[in-house]
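Dear support,

We are seeing what looks like truncated structure output for some complexes. This example has two components. We would appreciate it if you could run it in full and send us the complete token output so we can diff it against ours.
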Amino acid sequence: MSELQLNILQALDKKGTIENSQNEFPEYDSQQVQAALNSLLARSKITYKTIEKDQFNLTEEAQDIVKNGSHEFRLLETISKLQQLKISEVSNVLGPAGKTGQARAFKNGWISKNGDELVLNAKIDNTNLPVDETALELKQLQEGSVLDAKKITELKKRKLVTVSKAFTFKVEKGVEFSLQIEKFDTDITSDMVITGAWEKANFKPYNFNSEGVLPESGALHPLNKVREEFRQIFFSLGFSEMPSNQYVDTGFWNFDTLFVPQQHPARDLQDTFYLKDPLVAGRPEDLKYFNDVKRVHEEGDFGSIGYRYPWREEETLKLVLRTHTTAISAHILKQLAQDPKPARLFSIDRVFRNEAVDATHLAEFHQVEGVIADYDLTLGDLIGFMEDFFAKMGVHDLRFKPTYNPYTEPSLEIYSWHNGLGKWVEIGNSGMFRPEMLESMGLPKNLRVLGWGLSLERPTMIKYAVSNIRELLGHKVSLDFIETNPAARLDEDLHN
Amino acid sequence: MPTISVDKADLFELLGQTYTSEEFDELCFEFGIELDEDTTDSVQPGERPQLKIEIPANRYDMLCIEGIAQSLNEFLSRKSKPLYKLSSSTISLTIDESTSPLRPYAAAAVLRNVKFTERSYQSFISLQDKLHTNLCRNRTLVAMGTHDLDALTPPFTYKFLPKNEIEFIPLNQTQPVTGENFLEFYSKDKNLGKYLHIIEDFEKFPVILDSTNKIASLPPIINSERSKISVDTKNVFIEVTATDRTKAEIVINQLVAMFSHYTEEIFTIEPVEIISKHNQESRIVPNVQTRVMTAEIDYINSCLGLKLKAQDIIALLLKMSLIATEHETDSNLLNVQIPITRPDILHQADIMEDAAIAYGYNNLPKTKIASNNSQGASPLPINKISDILRIASAQSGWLEVMPLTLCSHDENFKFLNQLDDSKAVKLANPKTTEYQVVRTSLIPGILKTIRENRKHSLPIKVFEAGDVVFKDETLERRAFNQRNWAAIYAGKTSGFEYAQGLLGKIMQTLRTPWLENPSGSTDKGYWIEEDPENKTFFPGRGAKIFYRHRNGQDAKVVGSIGVLHPKVLNNFEIPYAASAVEINAEIFL
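Here is the complete output from our reference environment:
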């Protein structure tokens, strides 16, 4: 316990209340007093209130005035003594402040001008000079008297007085008041545990109103966390992961196999990244399939009249960065045709679009894609399955809108009601793959294939309230964001 | 998907009722178009409220108000499909052999006694624009011209003429332009300049001539001022030239189907005789006959999960412009007449979809797939490995980052003090230099992420497990992905030992011991050896990572580790010292 703390306790013991700490302990400044009080407060020895007061401080000039009189009064005294004073002599006699004194002496009506001489004003009685009010006011302030605000303002203007806040304290006894301060231990140590010292120790009360020390930790990327949620949903529904680790694909697999005509806008340079090195792809191994795809585009087959345009092999052998993971699904479905049977497959991986980049578009992003192959699947199966799939993400109340995709017929956009936005929002796209695509592969006519897809970024942006995709995927992501973002629980309802 | 702006009041008049925005939105939703915007609340004084409607890319018949109203009226069972009629042909268009092979196809039609209003005329012009941009692929595949027939003298000829024989006053010009200065004249034109590439390499230019040998148009760029069409034009001559015969037919069919609404004898079109002997393409166009396809009733029911009778399906299809009748002999078949406005119907799957839309997607019975899932669910093996690496890295206190796989050529090579080893895939048409190559290393992306996070507290410890891509000419797709794992430590000191420690943790997680004395061992394990060749690292501070998958096997170099060269850090504008480690993750498979 410090001496000041002891003094405070003793004073309280004697008086019951300390009305003004400044008067009681003038030798300590208010910060020292407050520190001692806080320490005692923490032990409930005392309580205190802070009293805030303006404190007036005299400048050096003002202190000089208190001692020697104001500049104007000293000029008055001088003129009174000498009868008159040349204006040019003022600075010599009174120093640099003489001019200030001269101005105020005029203002006070003490002196007047007679040619280049200063003389006493006729009203002034040489034997009974007026009171030096400036010096008097400053003296009063110094002694702690109260001046009216106008005068203070004037003195402040004349830079004779500065104002600061002063704190004093009114102190009273606390509930645990005593003249001693017990020693507190802050923590249980291993020594205490071993020696048993904890039994006699006094422990400082714990402050539970704090966050604790956050652990130093690594973190997974939020986008990958959401990806993992999707993967677990797929696994729980019996889907196996497709080998989607193939970014470069051919025009053939990315478009032609999916019955996307060669003049389709998606194949434009504006939309698709083409490669210049390497430049030309190899033909697919299965040349019969290659020709079947050509025929179904050019002339039609399998009950289709086809697109009836000249199909060019050069287009199929162009290399692209895949624009959708459906290019991979096409490969896998072609493999499935070797031994046709029901299958449930999915992939979540990057796709590439040669788009202008903005807050919601990047040249690469992740596509979530699911595929179900089975005999005699119906549109009702697709709709029913979409309800089950999205229910696993906590998304209910789906509606389906007819749409157009070159490789699915029927095609259904999936909408859900968004509580936050108060409207139906599109959450994915789905459909039954076209017979032209499946039957060219050699799949039996009644083995139908349902497919659906959505982007990984969009639900992640909604889950983590990210408005700019560049702050989620790519190098512009903030590491703080990665470190602090919560678990991805797609089924967690953030709106109710 | 094209977005069509239609006059709201006109559309509702054509639909015979007004709708609130919500009601109309609902109708669009069920039919499969999308109400993008209703401008009623933002309309300026003097303007008429518009509805902006998104149309599916295959519905060329709905690119104008006439088509949208017609389709919706049929969907609402308010109107039936128009029967388009041909009057007798009076005009011919001869296709000269000179048009082959550059733009060999042409078609034409005449609309007699048309009565346009200002708004229907604008709709006619706008439909041509929409078709030009969408189906016609910016006039490359098909281009159309519409003329005041009374200003021309039929019959017509389509041929390629030498440039020095071409001179005409183009549309909206006052002075003649010659074939020789044609390209230059239009090179500065904002609207037409973008189409010049189609003909710029042609020695001769395509022209449509009338019988006085005067030019009516120079497709696919511009018509003549002489035959300029206006709201007062009575007889409209439509000509279409194309490189794609199918699309030429589709285009002329849409134009006549939509604008025969305005002929005195409604839905009547005067065909044109096309004389094209050299390629056996002589015929009368347009052909407005419906196309007949058959559709299987049990296929439609099976796909929809319904048990509809023939008559039910016939009623549904009628709402979608398809007139179906029961097949003469086969009770499982329907004969379906496909009108000229529905070239998108290619297969009975398309008919099945239309039946589903008419039935209502949201009215279909929802069913569960009888699960046939004997194979069970399994992850892709490399993704499983990758997840093990990611989780071990995060558990070790490192942060996962996900940079892009596309980067600039410099970032992938020069900035790493490396020369182009010709293994990277290069893009032909990126819009920015940010996307020139597919990365062959994860290091540039991680360094860029550190650069953007310079203000983060030090040290920065980040990792990524992601794919890089290498060329391989032996593969059909000429390239393959490789899963890599990499980590970088950046701080006041290089932190090599931390990068090395993390590598050790990864190896330990995948049961790979460190071999202290590799030359004396043939055991499974890993070790590192100085690599003076790798310029990414500071001299004497870079190493190769060796890995032996099984006891007794040969060891392979599977990655690198080292203190990054200060030049590399400068290149990526990183003001810290740093160490990096990168390995091929597929070795653990």
